[in-house]
Write a structure and sequence with these properties.
Order of helices and strands: HHHHHHEHEEHHHHEHHHH
Shape: globular
Helix content: over 70%
Largest sheet: 2 strands, antiparallel
Distance between the termini: 12 Å
Length: 362
Amino acid sequence: MQLAEPDNLTERPELVRDSAGVRLKRWLGWVLWRAYRGDNPGILIGAMLVILAAFAFLLRDTGFMGAANLLAIVRVSSTITVMTVPTVYVLCASEIDLSIASVIPVAALIAAVLLSWQVNFVLAALVAVAFGAVVGLVNGLATVFFRIPSFVVTLGSMGIMQGLAQLVTHTNTISISDDQFLFWFGAGSIGAIPILAFWSLGALIVGSVILSYTALGRRVLATGANANAARFSGIRTGRVKVGVMVASGTAGALAGVLYDGQYAAGDFTLGSTDLLSVIAAAIIGGCSLSGGKGSVVGAVVASLLVGTLNNALVLAGFGAPDQLMAQGIIIVAAVIVSSRSGGRSVWKWLTAIEDMRRRDQG
């Protein structure tokens, strides 16, 4: 309902006050409603700030909020972020890739071996990334042409990659001494900003632009929402599914190269616990396991949230088992919240506010 404005607003300030109050309530209700439905990834920023504030208070004597530690969180989270972005695409296409983290050690060892042979650092990185793309292509083709669930295909690939990582070097660690490689893929920084932050930023920009503003992104979402309808509308859903699996494998290999740069060595244990973090970030960021919905921005923020939680747990004295349990709890909680549909009807006042907003826009 539109309120008639008087000639002089100062004569009737209650109208201005009431109108502003109603609009504010509607906007807040709309934001809460969208956040509750999982459609508003911006709420994750608030959640991250709350967690940061809580741990900053509890760990105020440990340097948790120090610049060095915050940069360390960004640095450590970069590989998770790089893998989370294509995982959003995979989930949006109603598939899943369990082998993405298992590609990490193999790609890392390939790059390390090539660098030990004095191969140019760019070529070594490209060969390692190309390996990941081939793994993703095989996963995608097996899923589409043989109609095997991607869960089964990538579960098998995960086992193969884990065995191959140990077979390549007989479980030995390969050191890396190429300064240019180490600078551009992990250890370098531009000013005070670590180079890994730029890799994360690049993944965020490319992933969000493609998913939100291009025809390719719309095809991915349509394929996951309803594959049959997408097929009848002319979308080649098979190509879409293969494409997202290739992107996932490529990102896993790139993460392996970035791990090489961080640790100056390739090892078969790299990324062994990353799968849970990647899936947790994608789900918390708003992805639906049934496909057709996801947010790259939300997933990237969630990856930082998971990295912050892991860092806080370490500073609080918890070990890797505790971090894995915390991530498992987060995944279960996020899935429960995102899958609740019947309980949402009790939020009648939010539903009413949503209806009012739609009528105003109409």
